[in-house]
Amino acid sequence: MSVSLSKVASVDPVWARIxxxxxxxxxxxxxxxxxxxxxxxxHDSIEKALSYRLSLKLASGExxxxxxxxxxxxxxxxDPWLGEAARADLVAVYERDPVCHRFVQPLLFFKxxxxxxxxxxxxxxxxxxxxxxxxxxxxxxxxxxxxxIHPAARVGKGIMIDHAHSIVIGETASVGDNVSMxxxxxxxxxxxxxxxxxxxxxxxxxxxxxxxxxxAIRIGNCSRxxxxxxxxxxxxxxxxxxxxxxxxxxxxxxxxxSVTMDHLFAGK
Length: 268
Description:
By secondary structure, this protein is α/β, with parallel strands linked by helices. Helices cover 44% and strands 15% of the residues. It has helices spanning 5-11, 13-28, 33-41, 46-58, 65-78, 80-96, 104-109, 111-127, 131-145, 257-260, and strands spanning 147-149, 154-155, 160-161, 167-169, 174-175, 180-181, 186-188, 200-201, 206-207, 212-214, 218-219, 224-225, 230-231, 239-242, 247-251. α2 packs antiparallel against α3. It starts with a helix and ends in an 8-residue tail after the last helix.
């Protein structure tokens, strides 16, 4: 490495920490050394590492790894926000998921994080008018990770999707910054309309496992949706809703529910 690790840390502390952890992991478990080298230590940025990792995961007989890697490299080179969002998402997972003890874990092992980064590349393609490629990445992301995010959906940064089984986010949905959701969440429509038909999730929202938010409704900033709820009406900011159909059952309980990940609530 031609640049000192201390210099890397001063420019990109997230990437420097990932490299440090990979060095230590290689020492602790030599049998994993090959994985850490090809996935992390061989690359000079998190963007390059993600391009490699995503292309390896999403490649198929219909689309080789090299083409997918070139697509991802182009996306990260042309839109620096994608790298910024990738770092914010990684830190969000580290801070909110109690099983995440190192920065390198989401990059290598957490399919929720990887699926969101794959969606971001597909969304970039969608914005470039390359919709068939965007649909292909959506399809492969769904097949590989069990996460189905339409490439036209708009998703902010600092996103944490825990476990990430059976996540569905529809075409006209939007998700704000610093949102946390658990497995089996659906942000869906209510019929066959072809216009604006999906939810708009505000900043700092916590969505519990199995929750369904349906229709072109707004979910206010820093609100909480209890596990298993079916939300069909607008949710004001900083409220907790629960039930089928969901009703307001109290306040959010804190300023940042998506960060505290506190799913408990008291009745009215």
